[in-house]
Amino acid sequence: MKHQPEENQSVENVKNSELTKNQESSKIEEAVKSDELESFQEFEEDKESFGQIQDTDTEENILQKQDENLIDSSVAEAFVSDNIEQNVKLQTEEEVTEKSDITEEKELSQEKEDTNKKLSFSERRKKRRERKLFERQRKVYIFLKTGTNWLSFVPFIILIVCLPWISYMVSPDSLLKIAPKWSGATPTDYLLYQKSLWLLLILPLFVLFGLLYQRKMERKKDIILTLAFLFLTGYSVLVIVSAVLSRYTEISFWGAEEQREGMFVLIGYVVLCLTAVSLYRKEKDYKVIFWSLSVLTGILILFLVANTTEYDFYNSVFLQGWKQSSAFDEISSEVFQSMELYALTLHYTELGTLCSLLLPFFTVMAIFVKEKNVRVVSIVMAVCSCILLFFSMSRAGVAGVFVAFSVLLVTCVRKWLIHYKQTLGVIAVFMVFCAGAGIATNGEIFSKGIELRQDFYSLFQNQENFDYHKDIPIKQVAIDGKRLFFTMQQEVLELDYTTGAVNCFDKEGQFVEFQKGDGVRYMTTDSRFADISFATEIIKTMDREKEEKRKVLRLYYQDKQIFIVNLAGLPQKAFLDTQYKNLDIVEAPYFGFEGKEKSANNRGYVWSRTIPLLRERLWIGSGAGSFSKEFPQGDVLAKWYVYGTPNITINEANNWYLQTGVEHGLLALLIWIVLLFFYFVDSFTLYIFRKEYNATEIFGLAIFVALVGYSANTFFVSTSISVAPLFWCLFGFGMGANYWVRRMREQKMFK
Fold it and tell me: What is the arithmetic mean of pLDDT over 158-171?
């Protein structure tokens, strides 16, 4: 036990000698560099002598330590106690120093405040800017380094993944019990109505998370986001005012059938957008939207595969709640076919609209993202989206994707030129895919593109002095008391009901005999009116919750019903539509598309008759979902020329912007166009001519291109609850991504 300290002391002395040698070697290097020594040899001699001295010192120290170790162990115990006392003293001294440091910090802060008061206005402003810059740098660092809070995105995941198909899981019987209490009416479009119902039910979650994760102070400092919030607020106010002052309040609040975008749903869209802006707080948050859209695309492609493999869709789990319902019989076979064919979207135009969002988004992610698993999934989802687009055969979807890719080509032209090999490879793969799809479908897959090109060329054809009345069998309808006059191309057929029986005459007043045939219709042997026949019957209708009986006459041309005449309502209420509602036959005013009414799949007719409606709605519109009520449905002769039958109801404008102007007013339309313009210009300036893109820039670019495709697509279609929520979600995340890109660029600029 007594020899152990000697060994320790000897080791310590050796270490001390080595440390002194190292210190001397460092001194040598400094001396050589500074040229303070005259010669290196002299310094070596000094070093040897110094080493000998150190060696002798170490020997003496060892002998001295051996003598010291012979001291009694009581000395060691005293030494330990002294160390304990020293440690206690050190702790007390540290506490005293900490207190003194705190007081010094307070004094320094007080001195800073005093100096700030003495500083000039410009100096205080400069310091304030420095503090703001530091705070922004700190938040950008947090944005780049922290992970995603998936819990805050649960409502968006539910909305994106489940909304397209969740209505298939609920029986219409339960909806029939809820709907009258919820909106005061029983819907017939069960699927769309359930989607709107589910959206409104989960809307409080978006409000809650939006309030929890909002960033008020940051948003006030960004001019573009502030303007966007103001525009969205103005748009929401006009939507509410138009709905409240509408003549069709029930429809305006809950939405018309086949769209289901009433006032509550539209305000819900705005809430989705604002919540998405607030929740996008970290760079890795883009993965939530990416994986949600990937799951949605996978579900859609599974339904498409089930259709192609002739899977029994009617007995699938998605219709278990429907098969036992009493409303099951009311659903037509056409609706079931659309449910099966168009992958949960109910219509080919809706599927095309969805693909105009998905295909550009996944294409950008597949090309630019660097993470391998995300890139592989993006490539697979882009191919699936392309298959869905071709399967939908939607010309509007093809047009939207074409515009989106054109904008992408211009925006990233520098990137394409730098990586020209990858660009040529992507083009080659796309051409091979299109060629294979064309061979598999015998060229039918490109028919929509050819029709779209023909429609585009037809817009520039000269159609002066065109008169569609010459191309329909009956070119004019007139009423005189209880007599109706149907002017044909060569003759005039007069129906006289003054005596309580239907008598027919020609243009010269000669009686034309109509006799009852094998069925219920009356026909004539006169060759001039051989294509004309009619039938009379008594029907029951509901007028203000009262049942009424009406005697009507159904007029047929070549076995097709063309007019329903209310014989009891002559002359004020002479005609009825297919739902037995009063119909005023008019020659509707039009603007443009003269002679081109059939262009763009008959959209030219709807647009030309919708534009004049905007003149009366400068400030507020007729209310959400009221387009079918405001459209001149009595323009039956023009409908006959365009659609081949006058008995058709125009429910939507086939143009989102025109329908917004009619339902919410020109001011709301102007606000919406300006908002989109600001977003597109901001995105274009942020992402154009960049050599490389980071994760946030790739996400923002993908959303920008996707929204361009959607906006171009909605120039040919109206929106509905099937796809519109996805657009508003991406719009909010796109504005949030642009916000953070500007912040990161700002930090680099200051650096």
Answer: 69
